[in-house]
Design a protein that fits this description.
mainly alpha; 4 helices; elongated
Length: about 100
């Protein structure tokens, strides 16, 4: 529900911007010009890039989260071992391990 509403609003915003570029060109006598076409093309290329990054980022983090869950499920270590492993992975120094 919430995600679908967000995607719908985003699509409506993309459509509004496209319409706004065309209306701006009509108002200032640039309708159908090569400049208008290049602005519209540039706009849609940018939107394509942003949407691709959102999709790729979403898939990447979903896969990363599922990988982390599978690692946690396969590992039967105690909570303290998991915290120590997380600290080593994140680059923090474990004082007990140094002693």
């Amino acid at each position: 529900g919430h995600r679908l509403g967000g995607v719908t609003l985003l699509a409506c915003g993309f459509w509004q911007m496209d319409s706004g570029i065309k209306l701006y060109a009509i108002k200032f006598n640039g309708a159908g010009s090569s400049q208008e076409n290049s602005v519209i093309l540039g706009y849609w290329v940018w939107i394509g890039f942003v949407v691709a990054m959102l999709v790729i980022g979403g898939v990447y983090f979903k896969l990363l989260r599922s990988e982390m869950k599978s690692v946690d499920q396969n590992d039967d270590g105690s909570k303290e071992e998991q915290v120590g492993r997380t600290a080593r992975i994140s680059g923090e120094v474990d004082e007990e391990a140094d002693a």
